[in-house]
Design a protein that fits this description.
With about 190 residues, the protein is mostly helical. The chain has helices at about 20-25, 35-50, 50-60, 70-95, 105-130, 135-145, 145-160, 165-170, 175-180, 185-190; strands at about 5, 10-15. It is built from 10 helices and 2 strands; from the N terminus they run E-E-H-H-H-H-H-H-H-H-H-H.
């Protein structure tokens, strides 16, 4: 066992010889899961991501959406949009925190499911709530500006979903693609608003 000695000139403790090099030694990287395991996890995440829609379909089939089914569907799809946005944003910090770079393979799927739930949310509003009555929609937007904020978030999300394919990333170039996909941060803020 090493003991600390005191540097008489500085009056502070001095680490034992070799302590600095031991602390700076790189930590061995964890082995990523096998490709088969990642594929199975992706299938599981995909299936779980469809559960909110399956639940809504089941509740509609058994007439358990409550007194205002349109509001129930609207709130549910909106909540799941925010949940998937949060999951998408959580991938990078989780990857860094747990030293699991393979988690990035799930970020695109989670982001696309965020867009999917947002599209369901918007469709519910336009079709089931307003029956595509554009005059009523305009009056509703004037009365409730948060609809405009939500629509702006959806408009910003759409290019992210449209540019998620590998060949589009290659065509755009990494810098431009990354610049575009940084829009996820204002989108999340708009979604919460």
């Amino acid at each position: 066992m090493h003991t600390l000695s005191i540097d008489p000139a500085a009056g502070r403790p001095v680490a034992p010889p070799g302590a600095a090099t031991r602390a700076a030694a790189p930590v061995a990287r964890r082995r990523p899961p096998a490709a088969r395991t990642i594929t199975a996890l992706k299938v599981g995440v995909f299936a779980l991501s469809l559960v909110p829609v399956a639940r809504l379909a089941w509740l509609a089939a058994v007439e358990r959406l409550g007194a205002n089914p349109i509001e129930h569907i609207t709130r549910s799809t909106g909540w799941w949009t925010l949940a998937f946005l949060a999951l998408t944003l959580a991938v990078t910090p989780a990857r860094r925190l747990f030293d699991t770079p393979w988690l990035l393979r799930f970020r695109r799927m989670l982001g696309l499911f965020a867009w999917f739930h947002a599209a369901l949310h918007l469709t519910t509003y336009l079709w089931l709530d307003q029956f595509f009555d554009w005059g009523e929609i305009v009056r509703d937007i004037v009365k409730r500006p948060f609809i405009t904020v939500g629509f702006a978030a959806f408009v910003l999300m759409t290019p992210l979903a449209a540019t998620s394919a590998n060949r589009i990333v290659k065509w755009m170039g990494a810098k431009r693609w990354l610049w575009l996909h940084r829009a996820i941060y204002p989108i999340a803020i708009l979604g919460v608003v």
